[in-house]
Design goal:
The complex is a heterotrimer of chains A (about 400), B (about 140) and C (about 350).
Chain A: E1 4-11, H1 22-36, E2 48-52, H2 64-71, E3 78-82, H3 88-102, E4 107-114, H4 121-127, H5 144-159, H6 163-177, H7 191-195, E5 199-202, E6 204-205, E7 215-223, H8 224-227, E8 235-244, H9 259-272, E9 281-283, H10 289-298, H11 307-312, H12 329-333, H13 340-353, E10 368-375, E11 380-387
Chain B: H1 6-11, H2 13-18, E1 20-24, E2 30-31, E3 47-51, E4 55-64, H3 74-80, E5 83-90, E6 95-99, E7 113-124, E8 127-136
Antiparallel strand pairs in B: 1-2, 1-3, 4-5, 4-7, 5-6, 7-8
Chain C: E1 4-11, E2 15-18, H1 19-26, E3 36-39, H2 46-61, E4 70-74, H3 85-93, E5 100-104, H4 110-124, E6 130-136, E7 153-160, E8 166-175, H5 197-219, E9 228-231, H6 238-246, H7 250-254, H8 259-262, H9 269-280, E10 286-290, E11 297-305, H10 315-320, E12 323-324, H11 327-333
Parallel strand pairs in C: 2-12, 4-5, 4-6, 9-10
Antiparallel strand pairs in C: 1-7, 1-8, 2-3, 6-7, 8-11, 10-11
Helix pairs in contact in C: 2-3, 5-6
The chains are: A alpha/beta (about 400), B mainly beta (about 140), C alpha/beta (about 350).
């Protein structure tokens, strides 16, 4: 399927910025994207915008898309806020793709923005729990971290996954993030340090958890027929797939996998006509280290239960045969909820074109890339497969 | 605060106080907490109410520390230390999440038999929300 | 047609604090004869404790919840000053909404007040069944020595006209005006006591001895006919002075003496003492219960054990289920650190 192309991608720096609000961040991402378009970039050609945002802080839950679009100079377009928790960005891309595939619009913006570090500690922890099941999961005393901890505990019980495996994910992603000038955290860490961090929700410690982050990202999606107007080296959306799942973990088929990832990736692989073994580089949703291990299995990179050994064997290191999270992942790069999904696309856009800023992170000649974006504990999942 | 309004909480009191589940008239499975359409056969909204025993075993658990606690539970964690949260597989079949109480967090194990009992969950707008928590079965009511 | 008790149970929260912990914090411990006391958990209150004890009592008696026609709930430390308290417990238990329910509070006599109300109901409803739940966790300022004795616990009883383990022989009461001993003004969760010791002691002895004497006279009984006496325990020594005045011995007090290891249980003090007496009583034993509520009043109730049926949830079993905490943990759980 070579009908939809991506001809530009940008993101803001991800991190904590008291001096930048969502308007400034989204503008930064948009301008970064416009500079990445090789030629003929013209804002007047953008007909629609799909902007991922959870709504952190709650101060602009209504009509956010109108505010973002006019601020970046696109006042009268078809614009929508896309919200599926942390999968908002992936769904923004899917929606943009469907828009172009339907023939309704030709050039469309897909992006996201989130501002998480302005709030008090108590409010922040409130917002970290709004994407789970409120009535039962929240009132049992969990946020995000507690839910993934429940999955981790069961995975360790059923498959013998070890504490070390969790921390190895953190070490790998921080090593990659140290080479990413856009990442929130650009410092490596050691296995000892990662394993000794204070407990947040056992077995997950501070180093198993992604941080709260401010950031924005934006990608320019267009009909493949007009892509050549902008660049000789477009990236194509070869396939995408989405799936929802029961919101509360206790309602799900299994507590050792994300059914949403399984089904979304199956749909994406089918549409793209490829299988997991053909993925050359992937950005997966490591909001918690256990999430990356589950992703290896649920995306079909390895068998159910074998994620720990798969990681130990080095497949997902930059030097391995299936490098995962070359950007540093959510762990090191940061997780500005609404912006994460298209932030993954930004990374893969550069990986496929060979234009990653720091060559140490550049995967050698990848042809097929996969982005895996999960909402909350897996209530929604969006998988995108990109090719060059 | 969790933004769960008084009527919203009140509507779940049969589940929270007495573990009332919904048995599907078509396939016989028990939905707990209830769903609009039976989640096992996906084909019926016709249910009969059944009161569950509250007994089950720990399917998985975690211990929530200060960084993992929602604001409604922050003071509880400060006062008593990390608290255990578990998904319990009830004897009637469904699984449900709930906090554990009356237990030393160090002693919580997958497979541990537990039973639901009424506890204070949290307070919002000055109104106390009660609901079930799970206690270890031997020595529990 | 005799009415009485067909089931009972105790619930004591798991946490304990010992007198030594208080002594470390304050230099001394003010509760006479108390070695340690029970502490309610952070996520418990008197309603959850009452529900737990009442559920146990129902299970112990085998009486189906659906047959309960009267529910009486007693506590001096309810979580609301205005809100129908028994509704929470009744719905939690699955007792019919149509049962006549009543909340008994305002002094530590509330427990026996609830028991009497239950028996009165059966007097005009022979086929009815009453459920009485008493739960208390009184509180005071941590700076106040009266705080030292305050514990937490619950007892519940199923009252009926058949399948009895103990018959209710009758009761007598005495109420007086003794304003200014243990009290709580509105908007205040913590007990106050002006510390006019002799005044308080004399009220305690006057009300309890009047009620008990009236009952013994009415029933034509002498002290030696009672195997056990369960008297209100603001500490472990107070019951002895009442017992002595009435002609009872310390040996008769022994089974029901719960304060040494549970502390002052407020409205649940006499009821838990009664439960402890039931735990060891033999068929034919008589038990006298004497409560006291400050301000002031007392109920005296007489029971005769007619069947050898014990609850699985005895006071001793409950007392043995424990975890010690230190004084700092105590302060945190009680929310006493501002």
């Amino acid at each position: 399927m070579k009908k939809v192309a991506i001809v530009g991608a940008g993101q803001s720096r991800f991190g904590e910025f008291p001096d930048k609000g969502i308007k400034e961040l989204f503008l930064e991402a948009y301008q970064d994207m416009s500079k990445s378009v090789d030629r003929n970039f013209d804002p007047k050609r953008i007909q629609a915008a799909y902007i991922g945002n959870l709504g952190c802080g709650g101060f602009q839950l209504g009509n956010l898309s109108a505010l973002m679009s006019e601020y970046i100079g696109l006042p009268y377009i078809h614009t929508m806020r896309i919200e599926n928790a942390c999968a908002s960005g992936g769904y923004a891309l899917a929606t943009a793709t469907m828009d172009v595939l339907s023939g309704t619009h030709e050039v469309v913006l897909a992006g996201g923005v989130e501002k998480m570090t302005d709030m008090s500690g108590s409010k922040t922890r409130y917002w970290l729990g709004v994407s789970g099941d409120t009535e039962y999961e929240r009132l049992a005393g969990t946020t995000f971290s507690g839910l993934y901890a429940l999955l981790a505990q069961r995975h360790m019980h059923e498959f013998g996954t070890k504490r070390e495996h969790l921390s190895m994910v953190a070490v790998k992603n921080h090593k990659n993030g140290a080479m990413n000038p856009k990442a929130q955290f650009q410092r490596e860490t050691t296995l000892e340090r990662a394993m000794a961090a204070p407990m947040v929700a056992a077995p997950l410690n501070l180093f198993d958890c992604c941080s709260t982050t401010d950031g924005a990202s934006a990608v320019l999606v267009c009909d493949a027929d007009v892509a050549k107007q902008f660049t000789d080296t477009p990236v194509y959306v070869a396939g995408f797939g989405t799936s929802s799942d029961y919101l509360a973990i206790h309602d799900r088929l299994a507590t050792v996998s994300l059914e949403g990832t399984r089904r979304a990736s199956e749909r994406a692989y089918k549409m793209a006509g490829v299988g997991p073994k053909e993925i050359d580089v992937a950005e997966v949703h490591d909001c918690f280290t256990i999430a990356e291990l589950l992703a290896y299995e649920d995306l079909g990179f390895c068998e159910k239960g074998r994620a720990g050994p798969f990681l130990e064997e080095g497949h997902t290191q930059l030097s391995g045969d299936r490098p995962v999270n070359a950007s540093g992942g959510l762990k090191a790069k940061g997780h500005p909820i609404g912006a994460t999904g298209t932030g993954q696309i930004y990374e893969l856009f550069h990986q496929l074109r060979g234009t990653v800023q720091k060559p140490g992170r550049q995967v050698k000649d990848p042809e097929i890339a996969l982005a895996h974006n999960v909402g909350g504990s897996g209530g929604t999942v969006a998988v995108s497969i990109l090719t060059r | 605060m969790a933004h769960v309004s008084v009527p919203m909480y009140w509507r779940t009191i049969p589940q929270r106080y007495r573990l009332v589940g919904h048995k599907c008239k078509r396939c016989g499975e028990v939905n707990f907490p209830p769903k609009g359409v039976c989640k096992y056969c996906n084909a019926s909204s016709d249910f009969e109410e059944v009161r569950l025993s509250g007994r089950g075993k720990v399917h998985t658990f975690t211990l929530i520390g200060a960084g993992g606690a929602p604001p409604e539970f922050a003071e509880q964690e400060k006062a008593g230390g990390s608290y255990p949260v578990t998904i319990v597989e009830l004897v009637e079949g469904p699984k449900v999440i709930g906090q554990m109480a009356d237990v030393n967090p160090k002693d919580v194990r997958i497979g541990m038999p537990v039973r639901a009992e009424l506890r204070k969950i949290y307070t919002e707008e000055g109104v106390i929300r009660y609901g079930f928590k799970f206690v270890p079965e031997p020595g529990g009511a | 047609m005799p009415v009485g008790i067909s089931g009972y149970a105790a619930y004591v929260p798991r946490l304990r604090i010992k007198r030594e912990e208080y002594a470390k914090a304050w230099g001394s411990f003010a509760a006479a004869g108390v070695a340690e006391k029970s502490v309610m958990g952070y996520d418990e209150d008197v309603l959850t404790m009452a529900a737990k004890a009442a559920g146990r009592a129902l299970d112990s008696s085998g009486v189906p919840r659906a047959s309960i026609t009267r529910f009486a709930l007693a506590s001096t430390s309810p979580p609301y000053r205005e809100k129908l308290l028994s509704g929470t417990v009744l719905v939690g238990l699955g007792v019919p909404n149509e049962a006549f329910s009543s909340d008994h509070t305002s002094s530590t006599r509330a427990g026996t007040e609830a028991l009497v109300a239950g028996f009165e109901h059966l007097g005009s409803n022979a086929a009815g069944k009453a459920l009485v739940a008493v739960a208390d966790a009184p509180a005071a300022s941590m700076w106040d020595p009266i705080e030292h004795a305050l514990g937490a616990g619950a007892a519940a009883f199923v009252l009926a006209a058949d399948s009895l383990l103990a018959e209710f022989e009758g009761h007598a009461s005495y109420a007086s005006e003794h304003a200014g001993e243990r009290f709580r003004p509105p908007e205040e969760d913590r007990i106050q006591d002006l510390g006019v010791r002799k005044f308080s002691e004399s009220s305690f002895i006057l009300n309890t001895t009047r009620a008990a004497t009236a009952l013994l006279t009415k029933l034509g009984r002498k002290p030696e006919e009672y195997a056990h006496v369960a008297i209100q325990q603001p500490d472990a020594r107070a019951p002895s002075s009442v017992a002595a005045k009435l002609g009872f011995t310390d040996a008769q007090l022994a089974a029901g003496l719960v304060a040494p290891y549970l502390g002052d249980l407020g409205a649940a003090s006499a009821p838990l003492a009664l439960a402890a007496a039931f735990d060891v009583a033999k068929v034919g034993d008589r038990i006298l219960v004497v409560s006291y509520g400050s301000g002031a009043g007392s109920d005296a109730l007489s029971f005769k054990v007619v069947a050898d049926r014990k609850t699985p949830w005895s006071v001793k079993a409950e007392a043995e289920r424990r975890e010690n905490i230190d004084y700092v943990q105590y302060l945190k759980i009680k929310g006493a650190i501002e």
